[in-house]
Amino acid sequence: MNVHHFNFNETNSTGASSGIGESCAKIFHQNGNHVIILGRRIDKLNEIKRNLENSESKAKVFAMECDVTSSESINDMVTKLPTELKNIDILINNAGLALGSEPVSNISNDEIDRVIDTNVKGVFRVTRSFLPDMIKRNTGHIFNVSSIAGNHWYVNGSIYCASKAAVNAFSDIVRKEVVATKIRVTNVCPGLVETEFSVIRFGGDVEKAKKPYMGIDALTPDDIADNIYYAASRPEHVQITTIETMANNQASTTVIHRV
Ligand SMILES: NC(=O)c1ccc[n+]([C@@H]2O[C@H](COP(=O)([O-])OP(=O)(O)OC[C@H]3O[C@@H](n4cnc5c(N)ncnc54)[C@H](OP(=O)(O)O)[C@@H]3O)[C@@H](O)[C@H]2O)c1
């Protein structure tokens, strides 16, 4: 891995209680950055915090409950950040989910709300909570974890694909809005990554959740965290705008070679 050591002050990752977010917390912390880890499952966050604090890095870890579907919860999180951790340099908007895999007619309003509230409104709201301060300080790097589903649309993936297409548009527009500043915006589009994502998607049905990863050497959450850390650690004049990463035997959401 070719990574410059780059000393940021604070890294804030939503959805850090598992998968890609947890891996991001690990790699940034290992490299000497203070990390703020957010999610709804505070027990998992506290366990991750303990493990990080027992590692060699002396950087700080701050774990806090935050539900990105709730404006109140986001405001509460921002207010409660300790003063020494308020200046966020790296924001990783990672919290997200898919629910089921059904044609539009079979999707409940509740599923539509949960996916849009988390993947779309969550990214918008968390960004608007930290961006004014980044603009004031003329520094910062925002990562929005989208998906290849935001570009490679598939049947029975309408709400999830649409939510990630919205994230792609948002990343592009924010980058344009801050073009006169030193703030960088990177849109991250992973393919199949083996995490809890599929278990959540299929309502805890572990057997069904294994299917998307069968017969393919899928990406790991560490692979995506490595991509993100790479982009964050480029020299200040380099802005990696988009990272699309797939497993070697995946070419789109639907073109996958399985053995
Ligand atoms: N896995 C894949 O194949 C894949 C591919 C492309 C893109 N992605 C994207 O990558 C991101 C991370 O997913 P993952 O694969 O790492 O899945 P994961 O292991 O299920 O992690 C999802 C994270 O999001 C958090 N989260 C969900 N709803 C939340 C809410 N309302 N408020 C705060 N946090 C919330 C979860 O924490 P709590 O449950 O503790 O709140 C968890 O930490 C998502 O945006 C996903 O769409 C995943």
From TrEMBL:
GO molecular-function terms, A-Z: oxidoreductase activity, acting on the CH-OH group of donors, NAD or NADP as acceptor
Methyltransferase: is it a keyword of this entry?
Answer: no
Q: Which residues form a coiled coil?
A: none
Q: Which Pfam family, any one, appears in the UniProt record?
A: adh_short
What keywords sit in the KW lines? Answer: Oxidoreductase
Under the heading InterPro entries, the entry gives: NAD(P)-bd_dom_sf, Sc_DH/Rdtase_CS, SDR_fam
- Family (UniProt): Belongs to the short-chain dehydrogenases/reductases (SDR) family.
Name of the molecule in the record = Short-chain dehydrogenase/reductase family protein
Gene for this chain: pksB
